[in-house]
From TrEMBL:
<feature type="domain" description="ACT">
    <location>
        <begin position="355"/>
        <end position="416"/>
    </location>
</feature>
<dbReference type="InterPro" id="IPR002912">
    <property type="entry name" value="ACT_dom"/>
</dbReference>
<keyword id="KW-0418">Kinase</keyword>
<comment type="similarity">
    <text>Belongs to the aspartokinase family.</text>
</comment>
<dbReference type="GO" id="GO:0009090">
    <property type="term" value="P:homoserine biosynthetic process"/>
</dbReference>
<feature type="binding site">
    <location>
        <position position="184"/>
    </location>
    <ligand>
        <name>ATP</name>
    </ligand>
</feature>
<dbReference type="InterPro" id="IPR045865">
    <property type="entry name" value="ACT-like_dom_sf"/>
</dbReference>
<dbReference type="InterPro" id="IPR054352">
    <property type="entry name" value="ACT_Aspartokinase"/>
</dbReference>
<dbReference type="GO" id="GO:0005829">
    <property type="term" value="C:cytosol"/>
</dbReference>
<dbReference type="InterPro" id="IPR001341">
    <property type="entry name" value="Asp_kinase"/>
</dbReference>
<feature type="binding site">
    <location>
        <begin position="209"/>
        <end position="210"/>
    </location>
    <ligand>
        <name>ATP</name>
    </ligand>
</feature>
<dbReference type="InterPro" id="IPR001048">
    <property type="entry name" value="Asp/Glu/Uridylate_kinase"/>
</dbReference>
<keyword id="KW-0457">Lysine biosynthesis</keyword>
<protein>
    <recommendedName>
        <fullName>Aspartokinase</fullName>
        <ecNumber>2.7.2.4</ecNumber>
    </recommendedName>
</protein>
<comment type="pathway">
    <text>Amino-acid biosynthesis; L-methionine biosynthesis via de novo pathway; L-homoserine from L-aspartate: step 1/3.</text>
</comment>
<feature type="binding site">
    <location>
        <position position="179"/>
    </location>
    <ligand>
        <name>ATP</name>
    </ligand>
</feature>
<dbReference type="GO" id="GO:0004072">
    <property type="term" value="F:aspartate kinase activity"/>
</dbReference>
Amino acid sequence: MALIVHKYGGTSMGSTDRIKNVAKRVAKWHDAGYQIVVVPSAMSGETNRIIGLAKEIMADPDPRELDMIASTGEQVSVGLLAIALQALGKKAVSYAGWQVPIKTDSSYTKARIASIDDAKVNADLAEGKIVIITGFQGVDELGNITTLGRGGSDTSAVAIAAALKAQECLIYTDVDGVYTTDPRVVSDARKLNTVTFEEMLEMASLGSKVLQIRSVEFAGNYRMPTRVLSSLTDPLMPLAEEIVSGTLISFEEDTNMEQATITGIAFNRDEAKLTVFGVPDKPGIAFQILGPIADANIEVDMIIQNQSVDGKTDFTFTVPRGDYNKAMDVLNASVKEHIGAGNIIGDSKVSKVSVVGVGMRSHVGIASQMFRTLSDEGINIQMISTSEIKISVLIDEKYMELAVRALHKAFELEAA
Ligand code: ASP
Ligand code: MG
């Protein structure tokens, strides 16, 4: 019998009425002959609320105790859902992460899954039970409760689906799929029926935050077909319709090669850029500039080093806007003194816009079409970076939405 894993987000679990709807939907799938494992999030707002309690006592609480607290939201959800399913006459059993167990390393608040034991769950499924497992949490070697980082239930669900060799992992959420770009910026953005997991990684990391990015990595590594679909539809809608709804995150080989060259336009509004002028052009310089930035736990994204003139060069990189001041302080403290570079300047009002698509591998001219489109709009490109399936430009924040709209149109991504 085919096994399907369902994941429900906090909005879908947001009240007992919504939980009853989730139970109806799950029961419908079970009635249709599927084995079902459900991985819910905490009720919406709950994780924030309980973490907030800890922070009322102390600004920077012990991460072990934070995980002890944060993990409880999911425990309430699984119990309520089991009760709601039992109320519909279904056999259902809930488990916390440690009961399965879902073993993780000991990095509290951002633990990584090491292994998932399938014995207990498989035995329950064989008895016809619907199994409900907490998202977000696990247990380390020593029996401490851990959590997987905010939004971690997505990752729990895909990892559980992979461990149980499920046919598909369905992520039910409050949007009905993945779009060519954010519909709030481009009103005729189109819902994608499929997106490859590599494209999804680029779209997610570039700010299309539908799924926790680690869940997409899991889907890719374990080749687990994962579908994003809406939990706001009628829970009793015909299964045949529901099965093909939303967006399937698939693998490149599975998609037909005639697809469009570009899949979507991703963007990240909140970038900042820093430039160090007059850097001596000699071995170790990039490391000396970026080493202290990494030590300060700041993530660097785009990097450009110029051709040197008279032994001096300029070095520019981008960081998340929230880290801009910190990065500037680090540069001023370390780099200037030790490297003997010139001025440091920065701009905290820049945004990144990217065109993404595996079709780029087999088509030429995407970059020139992108640059022509931006030029036609009079938008200046400050930095460019590329990968096999993505071209990104850094531009003035003022023009971000204009750029996204123009590119969405130029690559004919709009809904028919
Ligand atoms: N409840 C956790 C959070 O709010 C995990 C999740 O919802 O995925 O981050
Ligand atoms: Mg989420």
